[in-house]
Design goal:
This protein is an alpha+beta fold. The chain has one domain: OB fold (Dihydrolipoamide Acetyltransferase, E2P) (Beta Barrel). Helix content is 34%, strand content 27%. The chain is built from five helices and ten strands. The strands form three sheets. The protein has a five-stranded mixed barrel. A two-stranded antiparallel ribbon has the order 4-10. A hairpin with a 2-residue loop joins β8 and β9. The C terminus is likely disordered.
């Protein structure tokens, strides 16, 4: 006796294949985001209607201050100003990796071929979170950016909860 699949099994198989193909197409389409970016804070951008959390780093909060030898300064706002200047007029290209619990796309982004996260961390404007550890160490050793000051880690500033913009604990 020859085995014959039942028609409903064939239709279910076709349906699963179609849904899988649609999901793959949607995911592929959403993986790349590009355009002019508006800086929300030191580690969050907006391109069009999408909020993008820069992967691999954590920058000071907008209201965070740092104690420099000449006094306290609003280092969170300074990072926003520096990043805004760096991205001015540049098309930003992001590669989506994940989504955080706030609905933001977690992505690695580039401007003019330069990795934005690497630029922030190597300039001493953000802390490494999983990635960019070598750049953080080099910035710390050279006393670049905020490493000239006493500054609390952004995740500690947010309340000592260990919460890092909803990213899963990776590497630290």
């Amino acid at each position: 006796m020859t085995w014959r699949p039942r028609r409903w099994l064939v239709w279910i198989g076709i349906g699963i294949a179609v849904l899988a193909a649609r999901g793959f197409a949607d995911r592929t389409h959403n993986d790349e985001i590009s355009g002019l970016a508006r800086v929300i804070d030191g580690d969050t951008l907006q391109i069009g209607t999408r909020r993008i959390r820069l992967a691999g780093l954590d920058a000071p909060e907008h209201d965070q201050t740092c104690r420099f030898p000449d006094g306290e300064r609003p280092c969170g706002r300074e990072v926003i100003t520096a990043l805004t200047g760096r991205l001015r007029g540049s098309t930003v290209r992001c590669s989506a990796q994940d989504q955080d619990r706030y609905g933001r796309t977690v992505a690695y982004c580039q401007a003019d071929g330069e990795d934005i996260g690497r630029w922030l961390v190597s300039g001493g404007l953000a802390r490494a979170w999983g990635d960019y550890r070598l750049e953080e160490w080099q910035a710390w050793m050279a006393g670049r950016g905020l490493w000239q000051s006493q500054w609390e880690a952004p995740w500690a500033f947010r309340g000592h909860q260990g919460e890092r913009h909803g990213e899963a604990a990776r590497g630290r």
